[in-house]
Amino acid sequence: MTPNSTQTPQSLNSTTTVDEVAVSRAGVKNQIEALVQALNSVLLGKEQQIKLSLACLFAGGHLLIEDLPGMGKTLLSHALAKTLGLSYNRIQFTSDVLPSDIIGATIFDKQSNSFRFIEGPLFAQLILADEINRATPKSQSALLEAMEERQVTNDGVSMPLPTPFFVIATQNPSTQSGTFALPESQLDRFLMRIELGYPEPAAERQLLMHGDRRTHLNTLGAIISPAELSNIQAAVGAIKASDPVIDYIQRIIAFSRLGSEFAFGLSPRGALALLQSAKAWALINDRSHVVPEDVQAVLPSVVEHRLRESADFTGHGGGALAQKLLGSVDVVS
Question: CB 8: neighbour CB atoms within 10 A?
């Protein structure tokens, strides 16, 4: 699910000098600042959510955005694809969508007198799975192999997906009609879940005075290339996490498994997700090592969708449990 935490930046090697490392880090910093600035020009007043989205993608994960319709979920995903220079497809999930509508299908070609596979919209570098919880569980499951293995299987043949491969899924609140809750196994495939929320008054006023920000999408260009994105992902893997930080993360994981209010604790995959996300957050903040504040910054987005309250197993309740972890686990043992 996450890149190997021991890998080093592709642009560095054993002969790289201290000055070259500094130049490389400065270049990454400038690229990240340019990305945030460009995305801020489209999605007003949501810098925290923008940085979390970038951290998720830099960590090699998939992103789930849950919020009411019309909050800018699709706008953010499209803007990310443009600024990251990635090929982009949007899949609109509805109750009648079939797995073959997502993956593709094998058809018989009369001209060649043979069967051939027609790729579905899943074959792109960044996929927007729009309103994913409006599709039936069977169609939702079409994404499971793709998100975990970066490949799809059709008629017993496995086919790799483009590299890099990211899924940004949006879902409406489960209280709205016509939704099918995502199972825990699929929620766990998402490294992070975020909410955009209503805009601040100043940002909303700017929106009202200057019109729909979707028109600004056409002004966005690729700020980094897919190769540069791979270098940033490798740089995330090279971020250091000291023993005290690892101890802190382990105390968080242990508390989730032992607390009576938790229906179940965080899995090893959840622990790795928390560490990798904290490393990405450290990189975004121009640090070469993880500090406890990095863990705390990403923890709600990483764990909320992975947790259930023991008193309400069918509901979310993950937000309150995430705050419980932040408030109850000491940074220093």
Answer: 14
Backbone angles phi, psi at 130, to 5 degrees: -80, 130
| pLDDT for residue 108 | 85
Taking residues 237-255, what's their average pLDDT?
A: 96
Q: What's the burial of 313, exposed, middle or buried (CB within 10 Å: 0-12/13-18/19+)?
A: exposed
CATH of 1-7+23-95+121-238, one of 3.10.20.340, 3.40.190.10, 3.40.50.720, 3.40.50.300: 3.40.50.300
- Ranges assigned E (strand) in 149-260: 151-154, 157-160, 166-171, 192-194
Tell me, what's the pLDDT at 78? 92
Residue appearing with tokens 């999930």: 93
Report CA-CA distances (Å) from 114 to 38, 109, 117, 119, 219: 47, 5, 10, 16, 44
Average pLDDT of the residues of the chain: 86
Asked if 75 and 82 touch (Cβ cutoff 8 Å), the reply is no
pLDDT of residue 315: 55
Percent of the chain past pLDDT 90, that is, above it, reads 54
Q: How far is it, in rounded angstroms, from Cα 71 to Cα 99? A: 27
What the block records as the tokens of 102 is 């997502």
In terms of Cβ atoms closer than 10 Å to its own Cβ (0-12, 13-18, 19+), residue 197 is middle
Rounded Cα distance, 94 and 182, in Å: 14
157 token code pair: 């043949």
Do the Cβ atoms of 185 and 107 come closer than 8 Å?
A: no
Q: What is the DSSP letter of 142?
A: G
Residue 325: per-residue pLDDT: 95
Residue 203: pLDDT over 80: yes
CATH for 239-333 is 1.10.8.80
Type of residue found at 58: F
